[in-house]
Amino acid sequence: MPVEVAATESNGFTLDPEEVESRITSRTKMLCITSPGNPTGCVQSKDSLEALAHIAMRHNLLVLSDEIYARIYYGKEPVAPSIYSIPGMAERTIIINGFSKTYSMDGWRLGWTVASEQLTRAILKVRQYTTVCVNTFIQSGAAVALSADQTCVQEMVGEFAKRRGILLRGLSAIQGVTVAEPMGAFYVFPNIKTFGRSSADLADWLLSEHGIATVAGSVFGDAGEGYLRIAYSCSTSECERGVERLATALGSLR
């Protein structure tokens, strides 16, 4: 049975190591981390990952690290920090990654794991009865993606950064809205609690009355109530029109 630990706005939408450790019991076997995260786009810092690594080693836990957005990162390094790189963690960490985000191959559903030989053998025992025979055109496309010039990835992340800026500036200018700066992925997660509606009601209203597609924060758990997920995986002009339309819509509720 999974035990959820909320990543709250007060902690930058990242896991608080002390809170994580307080939830560990004798039955705990694995720590699951998603960084950069969906729906917030926030990234665990190197310091927090080191603290989580020490917790995992202290309690002899495996770590499942979802790094599907690792290369869509706005920091100084080309990839987001990974707990796998911390000394002592390679043998107890399973990285999950794939082609969907970095190479815009969302519908092709091809991914990979990085783990020790011992863990990989166990993964294969499960996988062989659930996922087999990836078709050849997907394998060919993935081979090209990995072997080709990676400048296209850098250019894509640069475009995402521009769109992120458009949304952050636009949202910050709307009275009653606050928004944390995401350091990865392609989402913003603005706080809309001052408008007096549930996130589901507001998302439905924005779509039906104003043609703005968002996702209610409550979809992502109780801690997401009072927020909306907005993706900027669309064009720059759509981001500009969308945030202008959002400002008009929310302004009518003041």
Total domains: 2
Q: Kindly report the CATH topology of the largest domain.
A: Aspartate Aminotransferase, domain 2
CATH-assigned homologous superfamily of the largest domain: Type I PLP-dependent aspartate aminotransferase-like (Major domain)
Kindly, what is the distance between the CA atoms of the first and last residues, rounded to a whole number of angstroms?
Answer: 43 Å
- Radius of gyration (CA) equals 20 Å
Q: Give start-end ranges of low-pLDDT stretches.
A: none
Adjacency order of strands in the biggest sheet: 1-2-3-4
Description:
With 254 residues, the protein is α/β, with parallel strands linked by helices. Helix content is 36%, strand content 11%. It has helices at residues 17-22, 46-58, 117-127, 136-147, 151-172, 199-210, 236-251, and strands spanning 30-34, 62-66, 93-98, 111-114, 187-188, 215-216, 228-231. α2 (46-58) links the parallel β1 (30-34) and β2 (62-66). The protein starts with 16 loop residues before the first helix and ends with a helix.
Short description:
This protein is an alpha/beta fold and 254 residues long. Helices cover 36% and strands 11% of the residues.
